[in-house]
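> run fold Argininosuccinate lyase
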Amino acid sequence: MGHLVLVESWVGAMSALLPRAVREAGHRFSFVTRDVQHYLRSHPGPGPHPLLAADNVLAAETNDVESLVAHVGKLHRALRFDGVVSSCDYYLPAVAVLAERLGWAGPSPDAVERACRKDLARVALKGVPGPEFAVVHGWDEAVTAARGIGFPLVVKPVDLCAGMFVRVVHNETELGDAVRALAGFPVNARHQVRNPAVLLEELLVGPEVSVETVTVDGRTTVVGVTDKSIVGAPWFVESGHMFPAALTGAEYKAVTEVAVAAIEALGLDRVVGHTEVKLTATGPRIVEVNPRPAGNRITELVRRTTGVDLPMLHVRLALGETPEITATPTGARSAAVGFLLPAHRGVVAEIDGVDALAAADVVEWAVKPAGHAAGDPTSNNAYLGHVMVVDRAGLGARARVEELVAGLKVRYAG
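> ok
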């Protein structure tokens, strides 16, 4: 039985899926965090938070890498860890440093840093199909670069997640609004000081998919491709996913080849990967590479259709194992998840339509309770609920989940 140190986590699906994967793989974990209340505030369900099922819940300053290495090193002498893991992008670089310093399995810290920083990733991926881009510091650089790329273009922070502050701008006025908004958000939700650089990218037009992979010893195995629904222009909000994506054989080959090339260009190894790709008129082009299992419950879509448990593979890689990746029949032809988004900011009085979610093909659902403060629907952080369905008849899970989510109606207080 291995003993993992789990450093921080996302507060969404992976805060339950990763602890479950550790236990079901026959291992145990200790949870290290700088703020346990961050997780308790986000856990509306009955019973204790899954992260608090850890053997030990330990306080540490996880935002200071050197302090964290020293502290975990001392804990290791007493508790004997066998590896380190996280699901949260904001801590993946620190986890890679911990693994290297304490002699555990893991990807190269430099490679993880390149993947997690969107500006460094773009530079490393210059040989892989992607958008024209520029990394800018300040307004003058932003205007010059935007005129060179041409409007419309996409403005991105280099170090935020869940689509926060990512938007399309059509002119210099909108560009100014986007740059000022980023400047007004200097510290992220984990109290880490942000990098002030801004990434400008050519707007890629076409459907978006993600490639789910496992890379071990320099060899990448493609588990499959997930489709993605994007809404909320000028923002990029993910409203749903289906696995497997409905692609032709030629599309699948092209998309997976460019994803594998991106993973190799970044130098990633011993990682479960989630690579987002746009299918443009000129071929697939890389949006970003994430060196961790997919969020938004995509790993559950994969598990329910192929039997491959990506969070569990994430755990096994952290423990130094070289797992086999083998799909097994589950009876499911496809699986899909859809997300309920607020129409606008406000306090939720009730969400109607949940009675329809008792259908046999619905395998999972949740909605926010009355009193929840809904934000503006500008990022993936705005979700008010989700529905997951499994299709065993070959009719396609996407249309079914979209129908069910459309039946949910948000009523606001007042």
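Residues 249-266 form the longest helix (18 residues).
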